[in-house]
Design a protein that fits this description.
Among the domains are: about 60 residues, no CATH class; about 90 residues, no CATH class. By secondary structure, the protein is of the alpha+beta class. The chain has a two-stranded parallel sheet with strand order 1-2. A two-stranded antiparallel sheet has the order 3-4. The radius of gyration is 25 Å and the shape is globular. The protein starts with a strand and ends in a 6-residue tail after the last helix. About 45% of the residues lie in helices and about 15% in strands. The protein contains 16 helices and eight strands.
């Protein structure tokens, strides 16, 4: 009987994914919650069946408030400089936030005048973003993000572009999976840190080698160009807990073999060529992964400090067995996740794509990030699928 207010942010992401289903779902949600009021934050308004919406347009901040916010970030910023920066930012909250954090960043020697000169000289690159109503705002946001981006160390710029793969929230493990090199048995990585969050350089040999009768090429069938190392894996009678492996060199091999064990219970979601893409690592890719990155934590903390990344706390359900109640009692714990604002994410994705055309090494690194991303989430899906179908959990 309590009255509640439910806030749904970034509704435009759901509308972009499937507009019809989103609008039907919102209508069902409103219909079954009579004592609840909904506040939808979106760059475009949905049309909800049998629901009358009240629209409130949030404009940019006033010039005086924008100037005051910038001077709060850095009291050394003069009134004239704050006024110029606010005007360049278009009085847009996101742009003001990025520039304000840059002004407040004690790790850099940037002055307000430095930022003004840089912002006036940068060119916009967010032409594809459909959420902003006009090109002027796109260019303004782009200049502000680029101002912070260009002041990152080169390895942090690469890490930021890699994290642009995530279009939603992600945790530390996912960030580490994309940033770090893949360690394989027998590789020479003893001089690198291998602890949690380590971003060790890849010194391993490729798990897929060109056959003697074929030359390296980018087109054609991967299956015909590369041969797979011999591997064996057997399922125990009690399930998939105990796996016997021999000469398994990569996740691609493990996942394909694991999928083959399911025999009559397969969903055939991954083709042979997709397994090869998970496994394949060319000479150029291995060279491109030699990045001087020390820790995922350093990356996340620094990008958050520059306001290019947000740290958020979200509840996660944990099922615990209670002996007194004789059953499972759900509880919740708070976990830390990260996310890039949609415009910042688009900037990172756009910059990574642009640089991938500059040379072969950049293109190889771009592919490496994408394959790590797929490998990480496919491993999670495979493990969850096996745990659902077999009694013994797969570690």
């Amino acid at each position: 009987t309590k009255r509640c207010l439910l806030v749904l942010d970034k509704v435009e992401d759901l509308l972009d994914f499937d507009q019809n289903k989103t609008q039907v779902w919102l209508g069902q949600l409103v219909a079954c919650a009579s004592n609840t009021r909904f506040l939808l934050a979106s760059r475009r308004a949905p049309v909800i069946p049998n629901v009358t919406l009240q629209h409130y347009t949030i404009d940019e901040l006033s010039p005086s408030l924008s100037e005051s916010l910038l001077r709060l970030c850095n009291p050394l910023c003069s009134v004239h400089e704050a006024r110029s920066l606010a005007r360049i930012c278009g009085y847009l909250p996101l742009a003001l936030r990025v520039i304000g954090r840059a002004l407040a960043n004690t790790r850099s020697n940037l002055t307000a005048n430095d930022l003004i000169q840089r912002l006036q000289s940068e060119e916009g690159r967010l032409e594809r973003f459909a959420g902003l109503p006009n090109a002027g705002e796109k260019e303004c946001i782009d200049r502000c993000i680029r101002s912070s981006f260009t002041h990152l160390d080169p390895w942090l710029q690469l890490a930021f572009m890699a994290l642009g793969l995530f279009r939603g929230g992600f945790d530390r493990a996912a960030a580490t999976a994309v940033l770090q090199s893949v360690s394989r048995g027998g590789s020479s990585t003893s001089s690198m840190s291998s602890g949690p969050g380590s971003l060790a350089k890849s010194l391993s040999e490729p798990s897929m080698r060109p056959s003697s009768s074929s030359s390296h090429r980018t087109g054609g069938s991967l299956a015909s160009s590369y041969r797979r190392p011999q591997s064996t894996m057997h399922r125990s009678a009690s399930g998939l807990t105990h796996l016997e492996t021999m000469d398994v060199e990569s996740w691609g091999d493990k996942l394909q073999l694991l999928n083959s064990l399911l025999e009559h219970d397969k969903d055939d979601a991954v083709s042979t060529e997709m397994f090869l893409l998970l496994t394949l690592e060319s000479k150029e890719e291995r060279a491109a992964t030699a990045l001087d990155v020390t820790s995922t934590d350093d990356v996340l903390e620094t990008l958050n400090h520059w306001s290019l990344l947000e740290r958020v706390s979200v509840p996660r359900k944990v099922v615990q067995t209670s002996p007194s109640s004789g059953g499972a009692k759900p509880t919740y714990e708070t976990v830390t996740q990260y996310r890039l604002h949609s415009m910042i994410q688009l900037f990172a994705e756009d910059e990574a794509n642009r640089r991938s055309f500059e040379n072969a090494e950049n293109y190889a690194l771009y592919l490496t990030w994408r394959r790590r991303f797929v490998r990480h989430y496919y491993a999670i899906l495979t493990r969850a699928s096996c745990n659902f179908r077999f009694p013994d959990p797969v570690e």
